[in-house]
């Protein structure tokens, strides 16, 4: 499968566009629509030059393409387009490695209609507090997971 334009639009909406590097809630330097790497594989750094919205979308689509290649072999079930789009939004945010070992993936492969999948999306709503080192619920991530879970089941 491939992500649909609806899925791309969701990710762009959830990430928002910033033309200059900024630190995300996880402390990583990002640019554009939440990209942490450039096309050549180098990490985004604090002092990098601004990026155009067109280049940011190119980075987004490139990253999504790579993530599709990494996660597609993990599925042993057929998914609806909306479900696939929701999963790619999730993977774009948490990374394919985290998804690979997740209960979310196990539940999807066991039964893609299992209502507990919504709960698994919602478990990924925390960020590490840089001051205390403890994880705390992020309102932004909670809202994102709700949108992703809603799309998954639509």
Secondary structure layout plus pairing:
Layout: H1 5-15, E1 18-23, E2 29-32, H2 53-71, H3 81-94, H4 96-100, H5 103-110, H6 116-122, E3 126-128, E4 135-137, H7 139-152
Antiparallel strand pairs: 1-2, 3-4
Helix pairs in contact: 1-3, 3-7, 5-6, 6-7
Structure description:
The structure is a single chain. This protein has helices at residues 5-15, 53-71, 81-94, 96-100, 103-110, 116-122, 139-152, and strands spanning 18-23, 29-32, 126-128, 135-137. A hairpin with a 5-residue loop joins strand 1 (18-23) and strand 2. It has a single domain (5-152), classed as Lysozyme. It contains seven helices and four strands. The longest helix is centred in the middle third of the chain and has 19 residues, at 53-71. With 154 residues, it is mainly alpha-helical.
Summarize it.
The protein has 154 residues and is mostly helical. The protein has seven helices and four strands.
Task: Provide the CATH architecture.
Answer: Orthogonal Bundle
Terminus-to-terminus distance: 17 Å
Radius of gyration, in Å, reads 15 Å
> How much beta, percentage-wise?
5-15%
Specify the overall morphology.
globular
CATH class descriptor name: Mainly Alpha
Query: What is the CATH third-level topology name?
Result: Lysozyme
Q: Could you give the order of the helices and strands?
A: HEEHHHHHEEH
Task: Provide the residue-averaged pLDDT.
Answer: 95
pLDDT < 50 stretches: none
Across the major sheet, the strand order is 1-2
Work out the number of β strands.
Answer: 4
Q: What does the main sheet amount to?
A: 2 strands, antiparallel
Per DSSP, the total helix count is 7
Structural class: mainly alpha
Integer count of domains: 1
């Amino acid at each position: 499968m491939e992500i649909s334009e609806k899925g791309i639009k969701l990710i762009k909406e959830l990430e928002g566009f910033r033309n200059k590097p900024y630190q995300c809630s996880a402390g990583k330097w990002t640019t554009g629509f939440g990209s942490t790497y450039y096309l050549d594989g180098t990490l985004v750094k604090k002092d990098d030059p601004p990026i155009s919205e067109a280049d940011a979308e190119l980075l987004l689509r490139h990253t999504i393409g790579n993530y599709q290649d990494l996660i597609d072999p993990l599925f042993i079930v057929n998914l609806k387009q909306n479900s696939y789009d929701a999963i790619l939004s999730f993977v774009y945010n948490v990374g394919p490695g985290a998804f690979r070992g997740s209960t979310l993936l196990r539940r999807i492969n066991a039964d893609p209609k299992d209502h507990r999948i919504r709960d698994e999306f919602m478990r990924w709503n925390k960020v590490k507090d840089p001051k205390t080192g403890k994880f705390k619920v992020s309102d932004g991530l909670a809202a994102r997971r709700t949108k992703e879970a809603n799309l998954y089941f639509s």
